[in-house]
Amino acid sequence: MGTTQLETVPEPKYWHLKTVLSEALDSEFSVGEILPNERDLAARFGVARATLRQALEQLELEGRLQRRRGVGTTVAPPRVGVAVGTEQNAWPGAAGDDWQTVDCAAAVPPAAVADALGTDREQPVHTVRRSRMTHGQPVAAELLYIPEASVPELSAIDTPSGAARARAVLRELQRLELESRENAVELGSARADDAKELDRLPGAPVLVVTTRYLAGGRTAAVSVATYRADTCRLTFGDSGAVEIHEGPERRAS
After folding, report:
1. What are the pLDDT digits (tens) for 141-178?
2. Which is the most buried residue in 17, 57, 195, 229, by most CB within 10 A?
3. Which residues share a beta bridge with 171?
4. Percentage of the chain surpassing pLDDT 70?
């Protein structure tokens, strides 16, 4: 790694440094690689460590870097593109679904979910928990609420426990003819359980994508998916899919 001195620029010094660092990430580092320590980076770019920290913090906010306790600052994987659309007619768990089933239990859903499902607010529903990973790191957690009426043929024999139970519920759900799906997206803060699953601190910014699946003229299921805001970006289109958008190829130094 050579030495680069920053010239006098009209913009804040840390902001210009952020741009220089971003270019270095694209050309010299690979995903998951650990950056040199702050002292070495500050010396390379000829800036004070306080200026360097401001630039690193901005890159972390933009999802380019991740600070991991006991590891250091690493290059973040490409952001997950959350596409918002209504035309994809596919149930959760169908072919091409990148979510991993984790567990399933009968639980009373939040009041708003119960109202959307048309169930009694105290009535338990099948609650499937799923996760989304990229480059070995968690980027999203989902709770999928499915009432008994949507999977009437499900039996206790078909649903032993854990991930096997979740897969059985999803298989039964796919027997219905999906008419449409509706998405809503909002910015929120990670609750304690979501934060733990996403490897973030409670209160960290997240994107909450709520999806209603309609079949037979009613809401057959509701999904509430929580995405890490530092690893996701919204894309708007008609597919309704969630895809991994690969960024520029990053080479190891």
Report:
1. 999 999 999 998 887 655 567 888 899 999 999 999 99
2. 17
3. none
4. 82
Tell me what the mean pLDDT of segment 18-25 comes to.
Answer: 89
The pLDDT value recorded for residue 59 is 86
**Contact criterion met (CB below 8 Å) for 174 and 93:** yes
